Amino acid sequence: MKKIGILNQPISAVIADLGHLDTLVIADAGLPIPAETERIDLALTQGIPTFLFHCCPS
Predict the structure, then answer these.
(1) What is the span of the domain harbouring residue 30?
(2) Residue 6 falls within a domain, yes or no?
(3) Does residue 44 lie in a domain region?
(4) 29-53 pLDDT, tens per residue?
(5) Which of 2, 5, 19, 20 is catalytic?
């Protein structure tokens, strides 16, 4: 079982597949993105956890 690093398998797979010119964006639910763009939703319910919880844990 993986105990260190990125535990979320979909996020780990996306990062592993990144190439030199690829871009990874971390955003809140208000970012307008095309329907064909891959996205990984980490929310339990709308607004929980907050965007700052993921980006700036204390």
Answers:
(1) 23-58
(2) no
(3) yes
(4) 788 989 998 888 876 666 666 666 6
(5) 20
